[in-house]
Amino acid sequence: MPQSPRAALPVRILASFNGPQTLGNSRFFWCCWLVAILALALLPCFASRYHVLTASNFLISSILALSLCLIWGYCGILSLGQAAFFGVGGYAYGIVGINLIEPMGNTDLALLAGVLAPAAFAACIGGLMFYSRLKGVYVAILMLVVSLLLGLFMRQTADPSYTIGGAYLGGMNGLGPATASDPALPSLTLGLAGYAVEFDGRGRDFYWFVLGVGIAVYLGLRWLVNSSFGYLLVACREDLQRTETFGYDVRLVQLGVFCLSAALAGLSGALYTAWGAYIHPDGFSVAPNILVVIWVAVGGRKDLTSVVVSTLALNAISIELAAWGEISLLALGVILVTAMLAAPEGVAATLGAWIGGIVGRKRAGSATSSVPARLGAAL
Amino acid sequence: MTATVAAEDGAILSVRDVYKVYGGVRALNGLSLEVARGEVHCVVGPNGAGKSTFFKTLIGVETPTSGKVFYRGRDVTRMPAFRRARLGLSVKFQNISAFGELTALQNLFVPLRRNHRKADIPDRAAAVLARVGLAGLEHQEVRRLSHGQQQWLSIGLSIAAEPDLLLLDEPAAGLSAEETTKTASLIRELNRQGMTIIVIEHDMGFIRSLKARTSVLHYGRLFAQGEFDEIAANEDVRRIYLGTA
Amino acid sequence: MELSGQIFSWVYQYFDNMAFLLLAASGLILIYGMMGVINMAHGEIMMIGAYIAASAFHAGAPAPVAIVAAGVGAGLAGVVLERLVIRHFYNQLLSSLVVTWGLSLIISQAALLILGPSIMNMPTPFGSFSVGGFSFGVYRMVLFAVAVALIVAVWALFRFTAFGIAARAAMENPRMAAALGVDTKRIYTLTFAIGCALGGIAGGMFAQTATISPFFGQNYTPMAFITVVMGGSANAILGLIYAALYLAGVQTVASNVFNPYVGYVSIMASALIALLVMPAGISDFIQRRRARAMER
């Protein structure tokens, strides 16, 4: 709905999160969203400790999924190796954390390293890939190769010489302290002005912290894709060459988005390491890479909300199925292929558009019509 | 943008002795051509004459094997496409080159956001749409527009970038007679407002209605050049179009 | 004697590595080069072939028969996959990448569920010979011969037979081919099936040198992709050969000078560098170089 320039501040803020690049721009949607957030926030009050622990992990996965959604769904760059950045972020957090937890008393710099290291790594690889104008398929496969290579490297670091300060890479045992006197992988400890707050990965506080980070990432990305830069991203997705002829250095656009995506994946990896006090070479293997792609593809790569919903739902399904034996990966594969055949735009996105259509018809014009094409709701 | 601009001797675009070889095929075979500032210049030629390769080397999607391209007096031969666009060179590709999944207004955001604030864009977009005869279709999804409307929107996107030189590749392809006439008058109107326009066309009928200076390409070279009537009267040009040359 | 054995050993390894790449990639290159689909489930197709070959062998079939059975079985699996899934994703390069990756997950996980994590074996035939104190398996040389034979057969099939000409027409211009009476859907199915059959044969061949498990395919997939991607699609078969010649050389040198892990890494790293220098693959690069040479 068009907002007059003099609309109240909250309305204007809300309007900047709305736009044609996302589903769910109506007041009805935001009410549902608020209810969902409230329910998530209250979860630790009635759920068991185990459920809170798993829910934290689901939220961390959602951030990873959003990072892939940004580059694949909005900018058209598919990476089959998104877990590479997740892993680099996790290892960076762990290595810096082990070394700095005692002198600093907090993991602020470790968390920062978990975000910046993958972004810098992405800048190197992405710079090479995009500036040599590599085709999309090749980018997708090369990223998978990069991830597998990192995994291979980490696997053979069992030799005691692989230490960085007090951190020992540890090969198949995962990252750990170099000697008994070095500290273990630290849990997330935020320091500010002399105070330090520790978030135990198994606790409620950690869950709430991750929920807050997740909401911030979600809203930040909604703002980004609905800003005028978002049109540029979508234009790159639709036709790279045509976009360049409008005077945009598309290589730079791709590189920038790629680095941002890597930073978010790294954030997710850092939180994961803090959550389980554990990071392992298997984080770079085929399984985590394919899982991210499944979450995003099944939900609907072109919509942030759909991706979060599907990530949470598919994670829950996997956990439920685990009780039945080793069938969760098989089931996820079947879900992926079925979804791509039946709802190429994504299951959650298709459902969302359908619900939006019903609500929109009731209150003509306030919501959405078809999946990618909603009439300039933000304008 | 600070590089020195050589004296502009009236030619906004100058192509000098350009070769482009693909596999064993010489798509451009020593092509030289000048386009004067402020004119409408048509480039025609039978299939395989090198028209679309010429177009690609102008916009920077392909780099010539040898030879030079000058735009506004500077050498742009190896300049990437986006830099040429920033120098005021705007293009419409042969096929529909609007973003099909977006609405007309969202399409126009892409060229307009480079020079305008977000708040001003809807008004600017409406003005551009009115100029190409699509007033009021802002919220129409592009793939639901008719073929002619999509062609005009593609031209609209190109002029929204406010170019000095507009390159149109087959603007009349697949249009009805009525739509073709409308396209021709749109081109003349834009030219009256000061835009230099190069039209690359296969269809001589459309070129006739533009009544402009015309270059004929044949086997990757400039075959003939002159006002349209001279060209149309030229026996050799007729021959290559009838396929006997 | 010692030196000649060492040199022979290097040459032998080079051909062995090349056979590995050519065999693993042969079916993949066919599907990519002809249909523009990168089949991420190719390794799993090879796994199916390996299981079929081993089962047939243990049921008493002679090894060559078992390998043919592997090809036929994998080809049939290819028909099913193409009919059910792949055909909905032509001309959608990225989607086909994702959907075939999903298929690879389904096939390997289903195999794990049905067959369990236990492994199967086939004996390596033909024994060995020795040169300068080093012992070499004869079978590895047979692998190389088969790899070359398969590549030549594919080339001949598409170059000379009526099917090949119809297939190339269908890939070049589907509408025109259909208008001329070519059943393009059938052509696509058959091409995909032939690609899978090649994968099955490769799986059956490798089954005699490696242990077979549900994750058998994962050992081959990345290498096969690297070879194919590096070869490019401008002239797929020639590109494959160039890529295999080059990558096998890199691997042989790196794994002898350092260790097999470095050999593996150097393959991937050199492919990465090669792609950055030649973004559309070797075959495209060579075509362009030729074009430039002609210009002079």
TrEMBL record, chain A:
<keyword id="KW-0472">Membrane</keyword>
<dbReference type="InterPro" id="IPR001851">
    <property type="entry name" value="ABC_transp_permease"/>
</dbReference>
<feature type="transmembrane region" description="Helical">
    <location>
        <begin position="278"/>
        <end position="297"/>
    </location>
</feature>
<keyword id="KW-1003">Cell membrane</keyword>
<feature type="transmembrane region" description="Helical">
    <location>
        <begin position="330"/>
        <end position="355"/>
    </location>
</feature>
<feature type="transmembrane region" description="Helical">
    <location>
        <begin position="58"/>
        <end position="89"/>
    </location>
</feature>
<keyword id="KW-1133">Transmembrane helix</keyword>
<dbReference type="GO" id="GO:0015658">
    <property type="term" value="F:branched-chain amino acid transmembrane transporter activity"/>
</dbReference>
<keyword id="KW-0812">Transmembrane</keyword>
<feature type="transmembrane region" description="Helical">
    <location>
        <begin position="206"/>
        <end position="225"/>
    </location>
</feature>
<dbReference type="InterPro" id="IPR043428">
    <property type="entry name" value="LivM-like"/>
</dbReference>
<feature type="transmembrane region" description="Helical">
    <location>
        <begin position="109"/>
        <end position="130"/>
    </location>
</feature>
<dbReference type="Pfam" id="PF02653">
    <property type="entry name" value="BPD_transp_2"/>
</dbReference>
<feature type="transmembrane region" description="Helical">
    <location>
        <begin position="252"/>
        <end position="272"/>
    </location>
</feature>
<dbReference type="GO" id="GO:0005886">
    <property type="term" value="C:plasma membrane"/>
</dbReference>
UniProtKB/TrEMBL annotation, chain B:
<dbReference type="GO" id="GO:0005524">
    <property type="term" value="F:ATP binding"/>
</dbReference>
<dbReference type="Pfam" id="PF00005">
    <property type="entry name" value="ABC_tran"/>
</dbReference>
<keyword id="KW-0813">Transport</keyword>
<keyword id="KW-0547">Nucleotide-binding</keyword>
<dbReference type="GO" id="GO:0005886">
    <property type="term" value="C:plasma membrane"/>
</dbReference>
<protein>
    <submittedName>
        <fullName>ABC transporter ATP-binding protein</fullName>
    </submittedName>
</protein>
<dbReference type="InterPro" id="IPR027417">
    <property type="entry name" value="P-loop_NTPase"/>
</dbReference>
<dbReference type="InterPro" id="IPR003593">
    <property type="entry name" value="AAA+_ATPase"/>
</dbReference>
<dbReference type="GO" id="GO:0016887">
    <property type="term" value="F:ATP hydrolysis activity"/>
</dbReference>
<dbReference type="InterPro" id="IPR003439">
    <property type="entry name" value="ABC_transporter-like_ATP-bd"/>
</dbReference>
<feature type="domain" description="ABC transporter">
    <location>
        <begin position="13"/>
        <end position="244"/>
    </location>
</feature>
<keyword id="KW-0067">ATP-binding</keyword>
<dbReference type="InterPro" id="IPR051120">
    <property type="entry name" value="ABC_AA/LPS_Transport"/>
</dbReference>
TrEMBL record, chain C:
<comment type="similarity">
    <text>Belongs to the binding-protein-dependent transport system permease family. LivHM subfamily.</text>
</comment>
<feature type="transmembrane region" description="Helical">
    <location>
        <begin position="137"/>
        <end position="167"/>
    </location>
</feature>
<feature type="transmembrane region" description="Helical">
    <location>
        <begin position="187"/>
        <end position="212"/>
    </location>
</feature>
<dbReference type="InterPro" id="IPR052157">
    <property type="entry name" value="BCAA_transport_permease"/>
</dbReference>
<feature type="transmembrane region" description="Helical">
    <location>
        <begin position="261"/>
        <end position="286"/>
    </location>
</feature>
<dbReference type="GO" id="GO:0006865">
    <property type="term" value="P:amino acid transport"/>
</dbReference>
<keyword id="KW-0813">Transport</keyword>
<dbReference type="Pfam" id="PF02653">
    <property type="entry name" value="BPD_transp_2"/>
</dbReference>
<keyword id="KW-1133">Transmembrane helix</keyword>
<keyword id="KW-1003">Cell membrane</keyword>
<dbReference type="GO" id="GO:0022857">
    <property type="term" value="F:transmembrane transporter activity"/>
</dbReference>
<feature type="transmembrane region" description="Helical">
    <location>
        <begin position="224"/>
        <end position="249"/>
    </location>
</feature>
<protein>
    <recommendedName>
        <fullName>Branched-chain amino acid ABC transporter permease</fullName>
    </recommendedName>
</protein>
<keyword id="KW-0029">Amino-acid transport</keyword>
<feature type="transmembrane region" description="Helical">
    <location>
        <begin position="48"/>
        <end position="81"/>
    </location>
</feature>
